[in-house]
Amino acid sequence: MKLLQAGFPLIISLLVSPAFAVSTSANVPSTESASAAPRSAVLTSYQQDAELIRQTYESQLFTLPAFKMGHYGLRMYRQTQDDKYEAAIWSDMARVASRLNHFATEVHTPEQIQVYTEKRAQKYRQKTDDRSKLRYSVTKSKPEYFYLGVDLLGSMARANEYGLKHRDDEKLRQIIRRYDFSDYASDPDMIRAWAAQLANQVYWLRQLGEQDVVGEFIKAFRATYPDTQDASLSDKQFMNKIYGLTHIIFAASEYYQKPVNEHEFKWIYDYYRANIDAILERTKEDVIAEVGINFLLAGLDNDPVVDKTRAAIQKAIDRKAGMVPSVDGETELRDGEHRNVLSIMLLDWRGAKAVPTVSKQPHIFDSIPYGLIAK
Protein backbone atom coordinates (compact mmCIF):
# COMPACT_ATOMS: atom_id res chain seq x y z
CA MET A 1 0.00 0.00 0.00
CA LYS A 2 2.87 2.40 0.78
CA LEU A 3 4.27 1.82 -2.69
CA LEU A 4 0.98 2.72 -4.31
CA GLN A 5 0.56 5.79 -2.14
CA ALA A 6 4.03 7.02 -2.98
CA GLY A 7 3.54 6.76 -6.75
CA PHE A 8 -0.11 7.71 -7.03
CA PRO A 9 0.20 11.53 -6.96
CA LEU A 10 2.82 11.42 -9.67
CA ILE A 11 0.69 9.18 -11.84
CA ILE A 12 -2.33 11.45 -11.41
CA SER A 13 -0.28 14.53 -12.23
CA LEU A 14 0.92 12.98 -15.46
CA LEU A 15 -2.53 11.80 -16.43
CA VAL A 16 -3.67 15.40 -16.61
CA SER A 17 -0.42 16.71 -18.07
CA PRO A 18 -0.47 18.16 -21.58
CA ALA A 19 2.52 15.95 -22.33
CA PHE A 20 0.18 12.97 -22.57
CA ALA A 21 -2.64 14.75 -24.39
CA VAL A 22 -3.66 13.33 -27.76
CA SER A 23 -3.31 15.67 -30.69
CA THR A 24 -6.56 16.43 -32.46
CA SER A 25 -4.86 16.53 -35.83
CA ALA A 26 -2.69 13.44 -36.15
CA ASN A 27 -0.36 13.52 -39.11
CA VAL A 28 -1.41 11.34 -42.03
CA PRO A 29 1.58 9.41 -43.36
CA SER A 30 2.66 9.50 -46.94
CA THR A 31 1.35 6.67 -49.12
CA GLU A 32 4.27 6.87 -51.53
CA SER A 33 6.47 3.81 -51.70
CA ALA A 34 10.04 3.82 -50.47
CA SER A 35 11.31 3.44 -54.03
CA ALA A 36 9.22 6.31 -55.45
CA ALA A 37 9.46 8.93 -52.72
CA PRO A 38 12.52 10.96 -51.73
CA ARG A 39 14.36 9.49 -48.75
CA SER A 40 13.47 12.39 -46.46
CA ALA A 41 9.76 12.03 -47.24
CA VAL A 42 9.86 8.32 -46.49
CA LEU A 43 11.57 8.90 -43.15
CA THR A 44 9.03 11.60 -42.28
CA SER A 45 6.16 9.23 -43.02
CA TYR A 46 7.71 6.63 -40.71
CA GLN A 47 8.03 9.21 -37.93
CA GLN A 48 4.43 10.35 -38.45
CA ASP A 49 3.22 6.79 -38.05
CA ALA A 50 5.30 6.33 -34.92
CA GLU A 51 3.62 9.44 -33.52
CA LEU A 52 0.18 8.06 -34.40
CA ILE A 53 0.86 4.91 -32.36
CA ARG A 54 2.46 6.95 -29.56
CA GLN A 55 -0.65 9.10 -29.22
CA THR A 56 -2.87 6.02 -29.06
CA TYR A 57 -0.87 4.50 -26.20
CA GLU A 58 0.07 7.60 -24.27
CA SER A 59 -3.51 8.81 -24.03
CA GLN A 60 -4.27 5.64 -22.03
CA LEU A 61 -0.86 4.58 -20.72
CA PHE A 62 -1.85 4.54 -17.05
CA THR A 63 -4.77 2.21 -17.71
CA LEU A 64 -2.28 -0.57 -18.51
CA PRO A 65 -1.07 -3.10 -15.93
CA ALA A 66 2.16 -2.16 -14.13
CA PHE A 67 4.32 -4.51 -16.18
CA LYS A 68 3.01 -3.21 -19.52
CA MET A 69 3.18 0.41 -18.37
CA GLY A 70 6.75 -0.03 -17.20
CA HIS A 71 7.76 -1.90 -20.34
CA TYR A 72 6.49 0.94 -22.51
CA GLY A 73 7.70 3.81 -20.32
CA LEU A 74 11.23 2.50 -19.86
CA ARG A 75 11.74 1.96 -23.57
CA MET A 76 10.35 5.34 -24.45
CA TYR A 77 12.53 7.02 -21.82
CA ARG A 78 15.64 5.31 -23.19
CA GLN A 79 14.68 6.66 -26.60
CA THR A 80 13.65 10.20 -25.64
CA GLN A 81 14.89 10.98 -22.09
CA ASP A 82 11.52 12.66 -21.58
CA ASP A 83 10.55 12.94 -17.90
CA LYS A 84 6.88 12.42 -18.73
CA TYR A 85 7.67 8.69 -18.47
CA GLU A 86 8.90 9.04 -14.88
CA ALA A 87 5.74 7.61 -13.32
CA ALA A 88 5.83 4.57 -15.59
CA ILE A 89 9.45 3.96 -14.62
CA TRP A 90 8.59 4.27 -10.94
CA SER A 91 5.83 1.71 -11.48
CA ASP A 92 8.39 -0.62 -13.03
CA MET A 93 10.74 -0.15 -10.07
CA ALA A 94 7.88 -0.90 -7.69
CA ARG A 95 7.08 -4.10 -9.57
CA VAL A 96 10.73 -5.19 -9.41
CA ALA A 97 10.99 -4.32 -5.72
CA SER A 98 7.80 -6.21 -4.88
CA ARG A 99 8.97 -9.35 -6.63
CA LEU A 100 12.45 -9.30 -5.09
CA ASN A 101 11.02 -8.58 -1.64
CA HIS A 102 8.78 -11.61 -2.02
CA PHE A 103 11.63 -13.86 -3.08
CA ALA A 104 14.02 -12.65 -0.39
CA THR A 105 11.55 -13.14 2.43
CA GLU A 106 9.22 -15.95 1.33
CA VAL A 107 10.71 -17.94 -1.57
CA HIS A 108 14.38 -18.72 -1.07
CA THR A 109 14.76 -22.19 0.46
CA PRO A 110 14.73 -25.25 -1.84
CA GLU A 111 11.39 -26.30 -0.36
CA GLN A 112 9.81 -22.88 -0.88
CA ILE A 113 11.13 -22.73 -4.45
CA GLN A 114 9.65 -26.16 -5.18
CA VAL A 115 6.19 -25.07 -4.02
CA TYR A 116 6.47 -21.82 -6.00
CA THR A 117 7.57 -23.54 -9.21
CA GLU A 118 4.83 -26.13 -9.00
CA LYS A 119 2.25 -23.34 -8.92
CA ARG A 120 3.95 -21.57 -11.83
CA ALA A 121 4.06 -24.77 -13.85
CA GLN A 122 0.35 -25.37 -13.26
CA LYS A 123 -0.48 -22.08 -14.95
CA TYR A 124 1.23 -23.30 -18.11
CA ARG A 125 -0.42 -26.70 -17.82
CA GLN A 126 -3.84 -25.07 -17.82
CA LYS A 127 -3.19 -23.10 -21.01
CA THR A 128 -4.26 -24.59 -24.32
CA ASP A 129 -2.07 -22.79 -26.87
CA ASP A 130 0.73 -24.79 -28.48
CA ARG A 131 3.54 -22.64 -27.12
CA SER A 132 2.41 -22.95 -23.51
CA LYS A 133 1.91 -26.71 -23.88
CA LEU A 134 5.43 -27.03 -25.28
CA ARG A 135 6.89 -24.95 -22.48
CA TYR A 136 5.12 -26.98 -19.84
CA SER A 137 6.17 -30.29 -21.38
CA VAL A 138 9.81 -29.29 -21.78
CA THR A 139 10.21 -27.54 -18.43
CA LYS A 140 8.39 -29.98 -16.13
CA SER A 141 11.66 -31.89 -15.63
CA LYS A 142 13.37 -28.57 -14.73
CA PRO A 143 10.59 -26.75 -12.85
CA GLU A 144 13.01 -24.49 -10.96
CA TYR A 145 13.56 -22.69 -14.29
CA PHE A 146 10.20 -20.94 -13.86
CA TYR A 147 11.55 -19.37 -10.67
CA LEU A 148 15.18 -18.83 -11.60
CA GLY A 149 15.04 -17.86 -15.25
CA VAL A 150 11.56 -16.53 -15.82
CA ASP A 151 11.15 -14.57 -12.56
CA LEU A 152 14.28 -13.97 -10.46
CA LEU A 153 16.96 -13.11 -13.03
CA GLY A 154 14.88 -10.56 -14.91
CA SER A 155 14.03 -8.62 -11.77
CA MET A 156 17.62 -8.59 -10.53
CA ALA A 157 18.91 -7.49 -13.93
CA ARG A 158 16.37 -4.66 -14.20
CA ALA A 159 17.35 -3.34 -10.77
CA ASN A 160 20.98 -3.56 -11.86
CA GLU A 161 20.26 -1.51 -14.98
CA TYR A 162 18.82 1.24 -12.81
CA GLY A 163 22.00 1.27 -10.72
CA LEU A 164 20.13 -0.44 -7.88
CA LYS A 165 20.14 -3.77 -6.12
CA HIS A 166 17.96 -5.46 -3.54
CA ARG A 167 18.93 -4.99 0.09
CA ASP A 168 19.30 -8.80 0.28
CA ASP A 169 21.23 -8.94 -3.00
CA GLU A 170 23.82 -11.42 -1.73
CA LYS A 171 21.09 -13.74 -0.49
CA LEU A 172 19.48 -13.72 -3.93
CA ARG A 173 22.83 -14.29 -5.64
CA GLN A 174 23.41 -17.34 -3.47
CA ILE A 175 20.17 -18.77 -4.84
CA ILE A 176 21.43 -18.34 -8.41
CA ARG A 177 24.69 -20.09 -7.52
CA ARG A 178 22.85 -23.26 -6.52
CA TYR A 179 22.08 -23.95 -10.16
CA ASP A 180 24.23 -24.54 -13.24
CA PHE A 181 22.46 -22.44 -15.85
CA SER A 182 24.14 -24.31 -18.70
CA ASP A 183 21.71 -27.13 -17.93
CA TYR A 184 18.97 -24.92 -19.38
CA ALA A 185 20.91 -22.82 -21.87
CA SER A 186 22.48 -25.75 -23.75
CA ASP A 187 19.39 -27.99 -23.82
CA PRO A 188 17.93 -28.14 -27.39
CA ASP A 189 14.42 -28.81 -26.11
CA MET A 190 14.58 -25.80 -23.79
CA ILE A 191 15.81 -23.69 -26.70
CA ARG A 192 12.87 -24.81 -28.85
CA ALA A 193 10.53 -23.68 -26.08
CA TRP A 194 12.30 -20.63 -24.64
CA ALA A 195 14.83 -19.32 -27.21
CA ALA A 196 14.29 -15.58 -26.65
CA GLN A 197 13.99 -15.93 -22.88
CA LEU A 198 17.20 -17.97 -22.63
CA ALA A 199 19.02 -15.38 -24.73
CA ASN A 200 17.96 -12.71 -22.24
CA GLN A 201 18.85 -14.81 -19.24
CA VAL A 202 22.38 -15.81 -20.24
CA TYR A 203 23.22 -12.16 -20.85
CA TRP A 204 21.58 -11.13 -17.57
CA LEU A 205 23.78 -13.62 -15.75
CA ARG A 206 26.84 -12.09 -17.41
CA GLN A 207 25.56 -8.58 -16.63
CA LEU A 208 25.20 -9.50 -12.96
CA GLY A 209 28.73 -10.92 -12.86
CA GLU A 210 27.52 -14.44 -12.17
CA GLN A 211 27.78 -17.43 -14.50
CA ASP A 212 28.86 -16.73 -18.08
CA VAL A 213 27.21 -19.27 -20.36
CA VAL A 214 26.60 -16.97 -23.33
CA GLY A 215 29.00 -18.92 -25.53
CA GLU A 216 27.44 -22.25 -24.59
CA PHE A 217 23.97 -20.95 -25.36
CA ILE A 218 24.91 -19.54 -28.76
CA LYS A 219 26.68 -22.76 -29.74
CA ALA A 220 23.66 -24.84 -28.68
CA PHE A 221 21.24 -22.41 -30.37
CA ARG A 222 23.05 -22.65 -33.71
CA ALA A 223 23.16 -26.45 -33.45
CA THR A 224 19.43 -26.57 -32.63
CA TYR A 225 18.49 -24.28 -35.52
CA PRO A 226 20.95 -24.82 -38.40
CA ASP A 227 20.13 -22.47 -41.26
CA THR A 228 19.98 -25.33 -43.75
CA GLN A 229 16.91 -26.73 -41.97
CA ASP A 230 14.73 -23.60 -42.02
CA ALA A 231 12.41 -25.08 -44.63
CA SER A 232 11.62 -28.04 -42.38
CA LEU A 233 10.63 -25.85 -39.42
CA SER A 234 7.01 -25.10 -38.67
CA ASP A 235 6.17 -21.40 -38.82
CA LYS A 236 6.03 -21.34 -35.01
CA GLN A 237 9.47 -22.90 -34.69
CA PHE A 238 10.85 -20.62 -37.38
CA MET A 239 9.48 -17.66 -35.45
CA ASN A 240 11.01 -19.01 -32.22
CA LYS A 241 14.36 -19.13 -34.01
CA ILE A 242 14.10 -15.52 -35.20
CA TYR A 243 12.96 -14.39 -31.74
CA GLY A 244 16.04 -16.06 -30.32
CA LEU A 245 18.28 -14.24 -32.79
CA THR A 246 16.73 -10.83 -32.13
CA HIS A 247 17.00 -11.28 -28.38
CA ILE A 248 20.67 -12.19 -28.57
CA ILE A 249 21.21 -8.71 -30.04
CA PHE A 250 18.80 -7.02 -27.62
CA ALA A 251 20.37 -8.67 -24.59
CA ALA A 252 23.87 -7.82 -25.77
CA SER A 253 22.75 -4.17 -25.98
CA GLU A 254 21.35 -4.45 -22.44
CA TYR A 255 18.02 -3.57 -23.96
CA TYR A 256 18.64 -0.48 -26.07
CA GLN A 257 21.25 0.95 -23.70
CA LYS A 258 24.34 0.55 -25.83
CA PRO A 259 25.10 -0.08 -29.50
CA VAL A 260 26.29 -3.48 -30.70
CA ASN A 261 29.13 -4.30 -33.08
CA GLU A 262 27.92 -5.82 -36.34
CA HIS A 263 31.10 -7.87 -36.70
CA GLU A 264 30.61 -9.54 -33.33
CA PHE A 265 27.28 -10.87 -34.59
CA LYS A 266 28.07 -11.08 -38.29
CA TRP A 267 26.47 -14.51 -38.51
CA ILE A 268 23.14 -13.05 -37.38
CA TYR A 269 23.17 -10.03 -39.68
CA ASP A 270 24.25 -12.13 -42.66
CA TYR A 271 21.40 -14.51 -41.92
CA TYR A 272 18.86 -11.67 -41.75
CA ARG A 273 20.01 -10.25 -45.08
CA ALA A 274 19.79 -13.64 -46.78
CA ASN A 275 16.40 -14.51 -45.29
CA ILE A 276 14.52 -11.25 -44.82
CA ASP A 277 11.81 -12.16 -47.33
CA ALA A 278 11.10 -15.42 -45.48
CA ILE A 279 11.07 -13.52 -42.17
CA LEU A 280 8.52 -11.03 -43.54
CA GLU A 281 6.36 -13.86 -44.84
CA ARG A 282 6.56 -16.32 -41.93
CA THR A 283 6.67 -14.19 -38.78
CA LYS A 284 4.54 -11.62 -36.94
CA GLU A 285 4.93 -7.87 -36.70
CA ASP A 286 6.64 -8.15 -33.28
CA VAL A 287 9.44 -10.20 -34.81
CA ILE A 288 9.69 -8.08 -37.95
CA ALA A 289 10.10 -4.92 -35.85
CA GLU A 290 12.73 -6.60 -33.69
CA VAL A 291 14.79 -7.55 -36.74
CA GLY A 292 14.77 -3.95 -37.93
CA ILE A 293 15.74 -2.63 -34.49
CA ASN A 294 18.64 -5.11 -34.40
CA PHE A 295 20.08 -3.30 -37.42
CA LEU A 296 19.50 0.12 -35.85
CA LEU A 297 21.36 -0.98 -32.71
CA ALA A 298 24.37 -1.72 -34.93
CA GLY A 299 24.19 1.69 -36.63
CA LEU A 300 22.98 0.12 -39.88
CA ASP A 301 20.16 2.61 -40.43
CA ASN A 302 20.54 2.58 -44.21
CA ASP A 303 20.61 -1.18 -44.65
CA PRO A 304 17.84 -2.33 -47.04
CA VAL A 305 16.56 -4.70 -44.34
CA VAL A 306 15.58 -1.71 -42.19
CA ASP A 307 13.44 -0.20 -44.94
CA LYS A 308 11.80 -3.57 -45.61
CA THR A 309 10.86 -3.99 -41.97
CA ARG A 310 9.65 -0.40 -41.65
CA ALA A 311 7.53 -0.71 -44.78
CA ALA A 312 5.99 -3.94 -43.46
CA ILE A 313 5.10 -2.36 -40.12
CA GLN A 314 3.76 0.78 -41.78
CA LYS A 315 1.53 -1.34 -44.03
CA ALA A 316 0.21 -3.27 -41.00
CA ILE A 317 -1.05 -0.19 -39.11
CA ASP A 318 -4.78 0.03 -38.51
CA ARG A 319 -5.15 3.78 -38.94
CA LYS A 320 -8.61 3.90 -37.41
CA ALA A 321 -7.32 2.19 -34.24
CA GLY A 322 -4.02 4.07 -34.37
CA MET A 323 -1.89 0.97 -33.79
CA VAL A 324 -0.53 -2.25 -35.25
CA PRO A 325 -3.17 -4.92 -34.59
CA SER A 326 -2.54 -8.58 -33.89
CA VAL A 327 -2.45 -11.08 -36.74
CA ASP A 328 -6.12 -11.72 -35.92
CA GLY A 329 -6.97 -8.02 -36.19
CA GLU A 330 -7.32 -7.44 -32.44
CA THR A 331 -6.62 -3.87 -31.25
CA GLU A 332 -6.71 -4.36 -27.47
CA LEU A 333 -4.15 -1.97 -25.97
CA ARG A 334 -2.80 -4.25 -23.26
CA ASP A 335 -2.16 -7.24 -25.49
CA GLY A 336 -0.67 -5.07 -28.22
CA GLU A 337 1.74 -3.03 -26.06
CA HIS A 338 4.85 -5.09 -26.87
CA ARG A 339 4.16 -5.09 -30.61
CA ASN A 340 3.40 -1.38 -30.73
CA VAL A 341 6.23 -0.02 -28.63
CA LEU A 342 8.60 -1.96 -30.88
CA SER A 343 6.87 -0.43 -33.90
CA ILE A 344 7.36 3.08 -32.50
CA MET A 345 11.06 2.42 -31.90
CA LEU A 346 11.58 0.96 -35.37
CA LEU A 347 9.79 3.80 -37.16
CA ASP A 348 11.32 6.64 -35.12
CA TRP A 349 14.65 5.38 -33.78
CA ARG A 350 16.45 7.83 -31.45
CA GLY A 351 19.57 5.80 -30.59
CA ALA A 352 20.78 3.67 -27.69
CA LYS A 353 21.10 5.35 -24.28
CA ALA A 354 22.17 3.91 -20.91
CA VAL A 355 19.40 5.60 -18.94
CA PRO A 356 17.80 6.05 -16.48
CA THR A 357 20.21 5.36 -13.65
CA VAL A 358 20.29 6.52 -10.06
CA SER A 359 23.54 8.41 -10.72
CA LYS A 360 22.62 10.06 -14.05
CA GLN A 361 18.95 10.86 -13.38
CA PRO A 362 18.72 11.14 -9.59
CA HIS A 363 15.43 13.06 -9.78
CA ILE A 364 13.70 9.92 -11.06
CA PHE A 365 14.95 8.01 -8.02
CA ASP A 366 13.97 10.48 -5.30
CA SER A 367 11.55 7.90 -3.91
CA ILE A 368 13.01 4.41 -4.39
CA PRO A 369 10.51 1.62 -3.63
CA TYR A 370 11.14 -0.26 -0.39
CA GLY A 371 13.67 -3.05 -0.70
CA LEU A 372 15.84 -1.46 -3.40
CA ILE A 373 19.06 0.43 -2.64
CA ALA A 374 21.81 2.03 -4.70
CA LYS A 375 24.57 -0.34 -5.74
UniProtKB/TrEMBL annotation:
Keyword entries, A-Z: Signal
UniProt-listed InterPro entries: DUF3541
| A UniProt-annotated Pfam family | DUF3541
Q: Where is the signal peptide?
A: 1-21
| Name under which the protein is recorded | DUF3541 domain-containing protein
